[in-house]
From TrEMBL:
Reactions performed catalytically: L-valine + 2-oxoglutarate = 3-methyl-2-oxobutanoate + L-glutamate; L-isoleucine + 2-oxoglutarate = (S)-3-methyl-2-oxopentanoate + L-glutamate; L-leucine + 2-oxoglutarate = 4-methyl-2-oxopentanoate + L-glutamate
A Pfam family recorded for this sequence: Aminotran_4
This protein's pathway: Amino-acid biosynthesis; L-valine biosynthesis; L-valine from pyruvate: step 4/4; Amino-acid biosynthesis; L-isoleucine biosynthesis; L-isoleucine from 2-oxobutanoate: step 4/4; Amino-acid biosynthesis; L-leucine biosynthesis; L-leucine from 3-methyl-2-oxobutanoate: step 4/4
EC identifiers of the protein: 2.6.1.42
Keyword Membrane: no
Superkingdom assignment: Bacteria
The keyword Amino-acid biosynthesis is assigned to this record: yes
Residues forming coiled coils: none
Role noted for this protein: Acts on leucine, isoleucine and valine.
InterPro entries per record: Aminotrans_IV, Aminotrans_IV_CS, Aminotransferase-like, BCAT-like_C, BCAT-like_N, Class-IV_PLP-Dep_Aminotrnsfr
PANTHER family reported in the protein's UniProt record: AMINO-ACID AMINOTRANSFERASE (PTHR42743), AMINODEOXYCHORISMATE LYASE (PTHR42743:SF11)
Any GO CC annotation of this UniProt entry: cytosol
Protein name per Swiss-Prot or TrEMBL: Probable branched-chain-amino-acid aminotransferase
Amino acid sequence: RTVYVNGNFLPEEEATVSVFDRGFLFADAIYEVTSVLDGKLIDFSGHMTRLHRSLDALGMAMPMKDADLLAIHRELVSRNALSEGLVYLQISRGAEDRDFAFPGPDVPPTVVLFTQEKQIIESALVKRGQKVITTDDLRWRRCDIKTVQLLWASIVKNEAKAKGADDAWMVRDGYVTEGSSNNAYIVTTDGTIVTRDISNDILAGITRTAVLKCAAEIGVTVEERAFTVAEAKAAREAFSTSATGFVTPVIAIDGEPVGDGKPGPVAARLREIYIEMSRAAAI
Ligand code: PLP
């Protein structure tokens, strides 16, 4: 694989980052994941908008223009002959002697990008539907910033796997926040889609925005509000969204089937429309 580090395209074996990098020492870094379909980027501008927001929130400067980042994304897709998968981008506050205080403006950020192949369209998980467990959301209170501080998300994902499930829906004060790396939705018995409203408690998914537009297009009512675990278990249908999972049905919560325990029609329809829309707008 060819990867990008601070201005250079290199074979992955030759790419290095300092042991003093603040991303490594403090998780002082932010990231974006943009999916690739047919060798094209899905909703790149949405990911750039959120990137700016994450950087602003942490007082970090944009290391280069959006257009330059786009060129690097495309170059990596091309050099790796990537047809379907993702491009990962990480920007850290750079490398300096270990110190909690931020380094001065002379310290350049560390910019890393790499590609990863992933079957997005023909996904076994989408066909089968995911089983989720519910667990405490013990993350910090700035889940709206896409930082690489992903330890709790990683722990709950592993907790889910250990219990024979696929993912964990995290719960704060009795209400579902989101999945380990995706936004969470239910479809109530009257056919309304419910997903948590945007706040510091969740990451505002780029896919979430797009999928809610798709829902409006097909005339499905959406309520952006928190829902309880009990509501989720009584739902007709459940699903999650993310850049690389698109729309993925949820068929069980804590071992209890959701609806009839099969992937639901609303998720399937939204996935179809989302793919169609994304393909048409991909760059
Ligand atoms: N929530 C969390 C915690 C995430 O990590 C992600 C994506 O990685 C999402 C939601 C979904 O965001 P997006 O649709 O932009 O991928």
